[in-house]
Amino acid sequence: MSDQLKHHGTSPEMEFERQDLSPKGVYAFLIGLAVAGILVALCLWGLYEVLDAREKKNQPMQNPLVQQTEADTRHVLPAEIEKFPQPRLEKNERLEINDFRLKEEQTLNSYGWVDEKAGVVRIPIDRAMQLIAQRGLPTTPRVGTLPPSNMAQQASKGETGKK
Question: 49, 65, 77, 120: which could form a disulfide with 114 (CB 3.0–4.6 Å)?
Fold first, then answer.
């Protein structure tokens, strides 16, 4: 028996499974999965159609003073959108936020007037940071402290307040 172990490397108790999953079973599962997916999609489509018809039926009555060619109030023409007061709903959020960010970026990185009458201008943010690094931030004296005096400078020069 030890000769058998040397040649085969296994014992009689350890064998592989002789019955594998047949390709027929795998194909049947995949076809069943595809059919189930199509059935679910068709059921959802039908459900949406039923809900849409119900929503159209339950639309509120249109004011008789409003002249509108289309009976469905969910569809609004672009000309009607401009008549509606601000703030309006967004039509395309991604494009509108990108335009807003681009405008803000241009404002941060360009020169221009904030208030021309008062003489207030804006400068690019990079230039403003350079100026602050060179000049430093303006400071105000702390509460309870006296402003700096030039008496020490005068005393070192030999100047006195007496004449």
Answer: 120
